[in-house]
Amino acid sequence: MHINKNLSKKIICWYDNNKRTLPWRVKFNSPKKLYYRLLSEFMLQQTQVKTVLPYFKRFTKEIETLTRLSTTNKRKIFKLWEGLGYYRRATNLLKTAKIITKENNSILPKNLNEIKKLPGIGDYTGNILLALVYNQPRLGIDGNVKRVFSRILNKHENKLNFEKIIEKNKKKLFNSKRNSDFAEALMEFGALICKPRDPHCKICPIKKTCKFYGSGNTKKLTDRIRANKLSYNIFCYLNKKKQIGLTKNNNLGFLKEYNLPIVRKKLGKKSFKNWNFLCNYKNSISNKKLDINLYYKFANRIPKDLNWHSLYNKRVFVPTFTKKIFRQVENLY
Ligand code: SF4
Question: Any residues with Cβ below 6 Å from ligand 1, and which?
Fold first, then answer.
């Protein structure tokens, strides 16, 4: 698999100008580097950056160094971790901090097999820590990195052996001295530019050599996303008893339960006669982005395929998004 020799230079250049300021991105020679990188990598496992940020800040304010962490009791660590979930990560972090400080002279192992012996460190975390802490020519192969490579090569992720590709192209990939920055830049690039649903190909610095872009697949992807971004009109029939008209016949495929009458197709002006516009509402259901205009009217009678239901009847099962609409409609009384 051919990787362009300028890939790392272009990605690093983009990163220098566009990277997010994140508290764990300290200078390469900072004494905080090992502790911050270790803590952030544990926190970021299965968790998004924006969720981790406040936890990381609170944690490092309370526990300032790796040595302090290694002597902190588990209950305090759990308290600081509260809400972040996957508490096993916190337990493993503490164990790893103890081993590094007490048995390894506060030095992170420099070898992948050795680092993977530490609790909670597998292939991904091991590789990325070696890159970030020691500037070793390695990549953490996360979802972002897999996506970038699969698009550059225009091959499905399942058909690629990423370790092999990296090994084969090592000289081309790691041809700057900034291995640590490249490892981080590639993940950042996947998160901010080569995004899963809407890659920003127009401003992408590597689009000329990207086979996905060259093949026109970007357009197909955005067309598919656009087709999934659909406009709907919802019509709420209301009566004086605080009841609302619900139906089971939406024929939309993704709303199986009782629901409000919802219409996808474009409607002419006549269809809105006697209806009052309430609000615009955005939601996602079953991978579809819905852009909904909500209308209401008070009526004594409703179409045959609708039934009156009390806005407060908890026995009728309706989806969460419909319940939210109920709350909006309640304000009309
Ligand atoms: S051109 Fe588009 S698909 Fe290709 S790497 Fe850039 S953002 Fe990703």
Answer: 148, 151-152, 193-194, 199-201, 204, 206-207, 210, 212-213, 218
Q: Whose CA is nearest to atom 4 of ligand 1?
A: 210
Cα of 194 to ligand 1 centre, how many Å? 5
Q: Render pLDDT for 153-176 as a digit per residue (tens, 0 to 9).
A: 999 999 999 999 999 999 999 988
CATH of domain 29-134: 1.10.340.30
Domain regions of the chain by residue span:
29-134, 229-330
Residue 286's pLDDT band (cuts 50, 70, 90):
low
Residue 41 is a catalytic residue:
yes
Name the helix (H) or strand (E) containing 97: helix 87-98
Give me ligand 1 centre to Cα 222, in Å: 12
Predicted local distance difference test score (pLDDT) of residue 257: 66
- Determine the 3-state secondary structure of 122 from DSSP: coil
Dihedral of CA atoms 109, 112, 113, 117 in degrees, nearest 10, equals 60
Task: State pTM to two decimals.
Answer: 0.70
